[in-house]
Amino acid sequence: MSPTDSHQDPLSPADAAHLLRARGLRKAFGGHEVLKSIDLTVGPGQVVALIGPSGSGKTTVLRSLNGLEIPDAGSVEVAGEVTVDFSGQVPKREIARLRDRSAMVFQHYNLFPHMTVLQNVIEGPVQVQKESRAEATAEAERLLARVGLADKRDSYPFQLSGGQQQRVGIVRALALRPQLLLFDEPTSALDPELVGDVLHVIKELADEGWTMVIVTHELAFARDVADEVVFMDDGVVVERGTPDVVLGNPGQERTRQFIRRLRPSL
User: pTM for the whole thing?
Assistant: First the structure.
């Protein structure tokens, strides 16, 4: 399935400049301000990698983009059709509309342990999108075959390796036919020998033109697949630009310090 197979309407020419636009996102937990007026724009088919030290706010940004986290201020617009303003009370139906446009792949898989692989994948399409079980099953089987897991459809998560569970997580996201894919450190919970399979699947999605925002610590991977790299620290965007610039010749000293510390991964 390619992005053009989405159940959503295609972008009109007026919307073509961006698929996602976040403006002025702020979020505090207790007295600690985690996000300090974050702006982010992602064009159709663009891959944006969010990098930065632990605690810099990357995951909070990602979760704010589809309403898993409710910002204290700011707005998120998707495809020029759904705009949620977080400056006041946000109706649940608006959050639901925002979530309908994107799908999240979590760091720790978040598969339902009591469900088989197939049941995990079809749960969203059947229960949320009211797709027929037969149609959802056929699509799930096709997607599982695509990532090399056709023979695991009746397995339970505990019977799978971490890499296999994460590939199921990706399939579960794709089965929702989103316009936007969000990845939260998709390889950080994996043993090193399992990382490659997951990154290969994500790179294939990038090559197919999926719009993605990826929080990652895999800098070499970000260099290979991202159109833009955004470096965050202490709740602000310190630097953004092409991978060659941000990872190869950063303009900010804080970025240079971060890159030098992780230079072995490049």
Answer: 0.90
